[in-house]
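This section describes the prediction task in plain terms. A model, or a person checking by hand, is given the sequence of a single protein chain and must write out its three-dimensional structure as a string of tokens. No templates, partner chains or ligands are provided. The sample shown here is typical of the held-out split.
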Amino acid sequence: MTIAIVGIGLIGGSMAIDLRKRGFADKIIGVDNNIQHQNIALLCGIVDETDTLENAIDKSDVIILSSPVDSNCLLLLQILDLIGGTSKVVTDMGSTKAGIAAISRNHSNRGRYVAAHPMAGTEYSGPMAAHSRLFDYKTAIICDPELSDTDALELVEEMLDILNMKKVLMKSSEHDVHVAYVSHISHITSFSLALCVLDKEHEAENILTLAGGGFESTVRLAKSNGDTWAPIFSENSGYILEVMDTYIEKMNIFRKLISEKDVKGLKVLMEEANKIQKILN
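The expected answer:
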């Protein structure tokens, strides 16, 4: 099995490491427009070689798109054009799915594409951030499986099994709603908190001195790469704006109760929020 990884960052690199280590891939070809990423991936042994997209597709059985979501959309159509009449399979690891689903839906080679989203990652990016076991016991969402050819779907499911992931099937539109609530708003909140603190605390020493565990855990995602997350926010803007409106509504309730020094009301609100633990545990 030869696999092409298009976008050798945290996700693509980590996937390459474990797919080779666990015997799914015999050879991995890296494709990345960042020369530094190519060199690091080669030096670290994440990929066996790097090449152009066209050459990598020609040599590979499976093509994994792990670039920013706007790039994935552009690349998918090009790849589907090139793999017509073959048994090659292409899958993407993007955090949004409605856009890429819409542009690929009527393509004659749509069946060779499997839309996937591993719910895994860290706040770090690039091939140096890649590591083994990133995906173990995490959830992988497969979108619109009925549109994929049976053999293509089975191959991607086998790959996700090798990565020890739990598979969930979902419509692409439903996927984007859910990730807006459970993932995308978390990043926006973290970025906003970081900006708020930086706006008020101009001395780095004060931030380091006073930052506790709660601040560190909440602001951790603000280290995330803008090249990755700006396209996600743009692609999923409709649902994200809906979530943000709800979030602002809840913040305003807290603001009102705090301004009124309503301790009882605040406790009731926080006890309601505590119920999330029953879901997460």
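For orientation: The chain has a mean pLDDT of 92.
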